[in-house]
Amino acid sequence: MHEGKYNIKAASTILGIPSGTLRAWERRYQFIAPDRNESGHRLYSDKQIQTLKGLIEKTKQGFTISQAVALLDREGSTEAVEEESIITDNQTKDYSEKLIKALLAFEEDKAHSIINQVFSMFTVEIAVIDILGASLVKIGDMWENGEINTAHEHFASSILQARISFIMHTQPSNPMMPKAIMVCGPEEKHELGLLIFTLYLRRKGYGTIYLGPSIAENDLETVLDAVNPGYLFLSCTMPACYTKTMKMLPLIKQKYPQLKIGLGGTGFAGYEEDLFVGDTPTEWNKWLNR
């Protein structure tokens, strides 16, 4: 007697993915083998549907399909998961160090080669946050401490931010998801955190309009009127930016009462708890789901 009870059309509807994708996954990765009825048609069991749901969830988190299959194969062993976490952490640090070394030597081709390796080995989130983003933060700290000069910092920042921006702009958005305006607060020039958060939102399907460094308040209202977004996210790292942003917010709230406002960056940390979106993907997801 067959355990399978969902044909491929029903499974496709339940999972929200095309039937052709299910067939391709079965053919390429052979991680699941549905039963067949007398006519040879696939029949998926409840357990297989749950397995597929787990696979799809991992792809939504940024894993490639092959990475997701490998993770599902290894899950169930706490030691394996912990070992993988340690290995991944060591690998990200190693790649970050190699990347920083190439950038500080002005070896552009080598830096791009390392970045390409990073995106082929890790999820987009790990590549951007734990390697490219971490490298840029480290280089910024080295510049502030006088360990490197302005030329080093500008060269490295231009390459890393350009790659993160490119990845962000190539992510498709879901027309059914809310739109979000992304901009730094008044006088704020540091946009790395905002760039990474924008990439996170794009990968979740949000339609984002990325404005980057500070723009005039009247210009911001022009965008808000034209787009009518569901969200406005403001980034701030400097005290002056915090003060001017907090003066601007009441006017925006009064004119756009339905607009959900989120604040991010070290300038807001510890303040405005209801508005502060946090620093990590876990905190961002929690804020969005409130």
Structure description:
It is flat, with a radius of gyration of 22 Å. It contains twelve helices and six strands. The strands form two sheets. It has a four-stranded parallel β-sheet, with helices on both faces. A two-stranded antiparallel sheet has the order 1-2. Mean pLDDT is 84; it is low at 76-87. Helix 3 crosses helix 4 (65-74), helix 5 packs across helix 7 and helix 7 packs antiparallel against helix 9. The protein has helices at 8-15, 19-29, 46-60, 65-74, 78-104, 108-121, 124-144, 150-169, 192-203, 217-227, 239-255, 281-288, and strands at 35-36, 42-43, 179-184, 207-212, 231-235, 260-264. With 290 residues, the protein is α/β, with parallel strands linked by helices.
- Count of DSSP strands: 6
Please state roughly what percent of the residues sit in beta strands, choosing from under 5%, 5-15%, 15-25%, 25-35%, 35-45% or over 45%: 5-15%
Q: Which structural category do the helix and sheet elements fall into?
A: alpha/beta
What value does the average pLDDT take? 84
Q: Helical region count? A: 12
- What shape does the CA trace take? flat
Spatial order of strands in the largest sheet: 4-3-5-6
Proportion of helical residues: 55-70%
Biggest beta sheet attributes: 4 strands, parallel
